ArsR/SmtB family transcription factor
Amino acid sequence: MDLDISDKSIPVFAALDSKVRVHIIKLLSEKKMNVSEISKAIGLSSPITIMHLNKLQAANIIRTEKKGNQRISSLRVDTINISFPQQLYIPYENWDIELPIGQYTNFDVQPSCGLAGQNGFIGKVDNPSYFMDPERYRAGMLWFSKGFVEYQVPNYLKDNQQLEMVELSAELSSEFPFSNNNWPSDITVSLDGHEIGTWTSPGDFSDIRGRYTPKWVYNDMNQYGMLKSFRISKHGSYIDGQHAADTLVTDLDPSKNSWTLRFEVKDTAKNVGGCTIFGKKFGNHDQGIKGLFYFSDIED
């Protein structure tokens, strides 16, 4: 489950604000249980237990099903990721871009793979040839089991300017046929041939529907990813503020008209679990691949 700091997330925060409900989550992480079993384990009456279960279900943390006269509860989520607002004061000018995820310029992908738009799949799934379909620019979600996709990021620097820092963000997850909430994958991101770092996605999520995912997407397909931040500075490269590589902003060639941005799952990765990229009107974040480029004037 991917949360942000907004009113929509309050039911989840409220559900977790209880030692009893945290205890119930721990119990359900081991096995499915009925009301009587949970009530006995936590030492509370069945009506009070049901009240706690209802709050967890309303927050989409657990699911319940009826088996005869029994109410069986189980966990819906494996992880809960909370994205806090990040604001970094930088005394520089900047330009920003947002690339549609279908605007890749090069690729080498292996099935399972495919493209999806607002009205359905684009081309045939699990056939890499369709990654060159002219309609790919309409894609709001793409996925592949291993390989890479590359984008061209424009360089708007003038001759008398120098780059100070780059910030990129994208909504990402692993890739498993349909979905698998516990399916780690090492996704490596690089710019201008220099690695920013590798992030290990914990899974390919379908525990709940994505906020923006179109209705035609099946419930057991990729629903959303995690919004990841990639930063290149004069001190190194960072993923979500954590040092990830020694690439410096000065390693980028300022003379190029554009830099190549690559998302890759390497054959040699420890966790070869694919990559899904979510774009506009898909997932939990209504955005493509965003970039913010800070620069300063070179003094004469």
Remarks:
- The longest helix spans residues 46-58.
- The chain has a mean pLDDT of 92.
